[in-house]
């Protein structure tokens, strides 16, 4: 049964600017412009009081490194660093809700979180994004132990998490120890007919808006380019994956398709799949009992 708080959140989101934007009302290009125009949420003063926050620059993009004050580093801790890639259809900036989840992860896992503001569409396509992400990942490898590093993200950030891992493996770089995909966007075409049926229950996303974001991010590349639609990319040598999806999310089809593909593959992939009944897109970045359950499952996955 869905919690009262989650139900209230769904009601709010259904009438929010985000649902209107992703529904493509007023035209897809206008929707993208509106989404891109929402400014990035910077760590609040309260967040900075609670955590140690350092801002640096990489290729002109802001990168935030966040950890507990006076963090107690456990030498036996398997994962001590998380690269977090925020969602937003590759168009939208990071939101205050992302910082909420990042704080929860730091508190629960005692990790350092690294949060880059990667180049976003429509000004920057997937080529520009990976011209940033691959050198950025190289830089991380020079400073952090990949065997103790995890990459995770939500929505488009989850797609970028999988795509970055696949590209790192293809380039013979050391992949992260584990990856986590939250409400992942893994097939950018938005052509799965089942998404139309789910859309009536989706309080946040719309097929038209999502398709427009996918085209903007792909640029001159094919929409099935593995960097754009990593659910169609290589499964070879992937690290253990935890994936979370909700049945009131049009991207449920992406998660299920990827699970089906993994289950049928002869290539061994360790996938821990969690599907939440009647939960909306990226519920785990919002405070509700279902998020508490998700955090607990994330902790179990990380500690295993």
Radius of gyration: 18 Å
User: Taking strands numbered 1, 2, ... along the chain, how are they ordered across the largest sheet?
Assistant: 1-2-4-3-5-6-7-8
Largest sheet: 8 strands, mixed
Low-confidence stretches: none
- Secondary-structure element order, as H and E? HHHHEEEHEHEHEHHEHEH
The 3D shape can be described as: globular
Structural class call reads: alpha/beta
Number of strands: 8
Give the integer mean of the pLDDT values.
Answer: 95
Query: N-to-C terminal Cα separation, in Å?
Result: 28 Å
Note the beta-strand portion: 15-25%
* Secondary structure: helix percent: 40-55%
Q: How many individual helices?
A: 11
Written overview of the protein:
By secondary structure, this protein is α/β, with parallel strands linked by helices. It has 11 helices and 8 strands. Helix 3 packs across helix 9. The model has no long low-confidence stretch (mean pLDDT 95).
Which key phrases capture this entry?
304 residues; alpha/beta; eight-stranded mixed beta sheet; 11 helices; 8 strands; 18% strand
Write the layout of secondary structure elements.
Layout (H helix, E strand, L loop, with lengths): L3 H11 L2 H6 L5 H10 L7 H6 E8 L2 E8 L12 E5 L10 H14 L2 E5 L9 H18 L5 E6 L1 H15 L7 E5 L11 H6 L7 H12 L22 E8 L3 H13 L6 E10 L8 H15 L1
Parallel strand pairs: 3-4, 3-5, 5-6, 6-7, 7-8
Antiparallel strand pairs: 1-2, 2-4
Helix pairs in contact: 3-9
In short:
This protein has 304 residues and is an alpha/beta fold. The chain has 11 helices and 8 strands. Strands 1-2-4-3-5-6-7-8 form an 8-stranded mixed beta sheet, with helices on both faces.
